[in-house]
Model the fold of this input.
Amino acid sequence: MTIDGDTAKLLAFIDSHGIDASAEVSRGWASVGAIIVDASLQRRQNYETTVKPRVDALVAAWPDAQTTSGFRKRLATGSLSEVIDWPSPGRLAQIDDLTRVFEDQGVETVEELRARLVDPAERPVFRDALAGVRHVSPKTLDYIDVLSGLPTQGTTDVRIRRVAEAAGIEDTSYTNMSAVIRAAADSRAWRAEDLDAALWHVGIESTSAASD
Done:
C-alpha cells in the first residue's frame, strides 16, 4: 500500500470517528527535568497511568529541576527513584545520561532547548549527541521535540499503531505512520502534532475499552 492509500484510510477513519485536530494541542513541559524524565520513561509504558503521574510528581517535588543545573543538583541527592517511584536502574541511568548531554551541550532551560532544536545548524549536532544515549531512538528524538512544545511531526507509539490497525493500515511502522500522519494533517490544514495528539487520545480510549 502506498502512503497515499494509507493516508486515505486514515482520513476515512478520522471522518467516521468525528476526529477534529484543528485546535492546537501541547504536550510539552516547562521543566528540563520533566522533559528528560518523560522521554526516558515513555518507552513501552502506559502514558496516563505510568509516565504522566511520575513526571507530575517530579515537577511538584523538584520545582528547581526547571533548569538543567537545578535538575543535576537534585539528581546528586540520589533520591530520584523515590520521587518518581521508579526502582529500575536502567531508566534512571538513561535520565542521568540525557542530563549529561544537556550539560555538555550547554542547554540550561526549555527555551534554550527549543532554540537549539529549531536552529538548522545546531539541531543535528544536538540530536546526534542525544542519539548516543542508549535506547534513544528516532522516535525518542522526535518526542523530545513534542515535549519541548515545538510544532513538529507527531510520534508514533502503540496507541497510534492501534488506531492505524483499526483504520485498516497494514504498515504501522514508525516511518510509514509519521509520513501518513503528516500527509493527512496537511490535507486538512492541521498541524501534524495536533493530529498525532488527537489520534493518541483515541488510542488511549481504545486501550481502556479493551481492558474493561
Q: What stands out?
A: The chain has two domains: 3-23+154-211, 32-147. The chain has twelve helices and no strands.
